[in-house]
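[SOLVED] Need 3D model of a two-part complex

Original post:
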Amino acid sequence: DAGITQSPRHKVTETGTPVTLRCHQTENHRYMYWYRQDPGHGLRLIHYSYGVKDTDKGEVSDGYSVSRSKTEDFLLTLESATSSQTSVYFCAISESFIPRTSKSEQFFGPGTRLTVL
Amino acid sequence: DAKTTQPPSMDCAEGRAANLPCNHSTISGNEYVYWYRQIHSQGPQYIIHGLKNNETNEMASLIITEDRKSSTLILPHATLRDTAVYYCIVRGIGDMRFGAGTRLTVKP
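Solution:
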């Protein structure tokens, strides 16, 4: 299995508080991604990174920010958590972003279950 | 990226081949077909991907029709551990878009 860890694995917080989720990889992959998964919506991309300090928005980026200060860590921050951000969050990594290469597959972490009360 | 259509659920007998269909009639020439699966609440797991030729790896085979408007993922000898949600994704240069997938249940 790809070396991807997510922390915390479970978190309960209150509306309005800041929350930071961490994704850590030991594979030295260039690309890192944050997804959320909700019933009826499948997985949706929040933000992704294509290198240190290089990030871009995904499909559902409102209310989230990300940072990547070193290759191995990708942080997802909810500045002021809302109940609509209750979800399971998955981090993923890949060596390449281009589908035609054999290294474009994404490897996913175990997920973080976040509950915002 | 093109959209995909998959049946919401399928059953398969243990030891038999599981054939999971996917329609992607609006696929364009530079888009690839990817398959992932998600077992229970774990992170999705990559299975296979292809452009137009059939592909095979240690997990599965991917059969893409000549017109590329549909594909089939084949698990040759399904086991109980293959019970999962299987996602068919059509992807170009952009990000991956997961749909609802097919819930495959392998029965003894």
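Edit: Chain A has a mean pLDDT of 93.
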